[in-house]
Amino acid sequence: MSLPEIEDLLGRMIRIPSVNPRERAEPAETPLAEFVADWAEGNGMRASLSEVADGRRNVLVTLDGDGAETVLLETHLDTVETDGMTVDPYEPVVKDGLLYGRGSCDAKGPLAVFMTAMAALARGGPRPYTVVLAGVVDEEHVYRGVQAMRREFAERGVAPIGAVVGEPTSLRMVTAHKGCMRCRITARGPGGHSSEPWGKTNPITTAARIAAYLADEYAPALDALARPLVGPPSLAVTMVEGGSGPNVLAERATLTLDRRTVAGEDPHEVWRELRDRLLSRWPDGVEVADPHVVDYALETDPDSAFVRGFADVLRTAGHEPAPKGVGHGTDASKIAMDAVPSVVFGPGAIAQAHMPAEFVPLDELHAARDVVEALLRREGTR
């Protein structure tokens, strides 16, 4: 007995490894991009590949519509690592209505949703919009794929009336999420023998005082910046590094911070304000490094025509139509920078993403496909 189209397609893509190589120069996502391009051309669509870096390629699939307007479907090709998985990462297994494998939830499941919805349109019926599917690299690291896509769209004059970004949302329409600013703070001291600590600055002690200040004074004040759907910004010290031996005074101690931002905050300005505040309290022996990760928050207008249209589709299908906010980031915030109303949607839950036994519920996989097809066939989305 043959599998339903979407389950078969997802299984085939799970079998293609596409682990994000982080800083290694490897064309990790390219075999999956090539698979998507071949599949698209075999289903009557146009496809193109474009290199982003180190042989890593985005894929764009275009299905021409009857009107001049374009709807963008975007998701990422890369997955996180497979270390410690308790299921075979590359051999999809279905058990109790769940499909297991790396990427089943984040984000090859949403990719299969988009592809099969487009295939249904290609087979016939109303097609009011040109649909562009973008499968991009590097979402799990520093977002180079979506930034390259934005540049390509600008060069080609592609201006979507709306975008659906594929991520696990349990079939909810996400219109808001937080951004982030991550940086490192290093305290320094002269070092020396631990039996003679008197009169010496201990960087570990300084770092502990900084961490206490951030937790007790800085972070609580962020509550005043709360936004609808996502709440307030946050700050957490996520890593502590320092010391070279049990009987040696450390010469340095480094804290890594994760500062989550909300709409209206510029992550670079957040960093400058934090740096200035810390250096005014600890002017000697403390360094605040430039951010090593910056991402932007998303806050799509819930009254935009695209959002209202998506809500109508969800309501008609019997799903919750109210917009939702989440704390983690997606490619949607970058797409929204180009004045494209953007929502995040897909099967599966973020709680299953990156997990040792990653899975997606099959009923949500099929339901998400039906929702996306209905959206793409709906007149008057703008």
TrEMBL record:
Protein name (database record): Acetylornithine deacetylase
Pfam families registered for this protein in UniProt: M20_dimer, Peptidase_M20
Gene from which the chain derives: argE
Coiled coil: none
Hydrolase keyword on record: yes
Domain of life: Bacteria
Keyword list, A-Z: Hydrolase, Metal-binding
UniProt keyword Metal-binding, yes or no: yes
Domain Peptidase M20 dimerisation positions: 175-282
The organism of origin for this protein: Actinomadura vinacea
